[in-house]
Structure formats: C-alpha cells, structure tokens
Amino acid sequence: MNAFLWAATVLVALELPLIGFIVFAPRIDALAGLQAAGAVFTLALLTLAQGFHRTAYTILAVVAAALTFAGGMVFVRFFDRELDT
Questions:
Q1: Domain residue limits at 20
Q2: Region for 54 from its dihedrals, namely left if φ exceeds 0, alpha if ψ lies in -120 to 50, beta otherwise
Q3: Rounded to 5 degrees, what angle do the CA atoms 79, 81, 84 make?
Q4: How far apart are CA 42 and CA 8, in angstroms?
C-alpha cells in the first residue's frame, strides 16, 4: 500500500464520526455536517484515484464535489421555505 491509499483509509474512517453527528444533530446543523462529509468524501475519492493510479477515477471526485455543492443548495432552499411558514 502506498501513502495515498493510507490517506484514503484515514479519510474514510473520518466519515464515521461525521455520520454520527449528522444522525443526531438538529437539521440545520446536520446540513453543515453533510457538507463537511461531502468534502471529506471527495478528498477520499481523489486519494483513491491517485493510490490506484487511475486518472479516470478523478472524474468521479469532480462529480461528487459538484453534486455535494448542488445538494447543499437544494437543502438550504427547502429549509428556507420551512422557516418561512
């Protein structure tokens, strides 16, 4: 195993406390945890792509980053509607 695979293993292990926080936190705080988990997941995908020497896998990390941002914006939009009523 090279250093990139070790780093990816650590990043995936860091997802567990974030998932625990997301499950038990209030919804608006869970959204911040979800955004942080998305960033860590994207970094894990990038390090896995480098660790396996597959540059084609990098596109998956780029898509995950874009969808994490877009998904967060959708949740913020729904929370805004919920707070208005």
A1: 3-84
A2: beta
A3: 110
A4: 10
Residue-wise DSSP of 9-54: HHHHHHHHHHHHHHHHS-HHHHHHHHHHHHHHHHHHHHHHHHHTT-
- What is the domain count for the chain? 1
- Encode pLDDT of 10-56 as tens digits: 999 999 999 999 999 988 888 899 999 999 999 999 999 999 999 88
The pTM assigned to this predicted structure is 0.84
d(CA 85, CA 83): 6
Task: Extract long-range pairs of 8-11: CB within 8 Å, 24+ residues apart.
Answer: 8/44, 8/47, 8/48, 8/51, 11/40, 11/41, 11/43, 11/44, 11/47
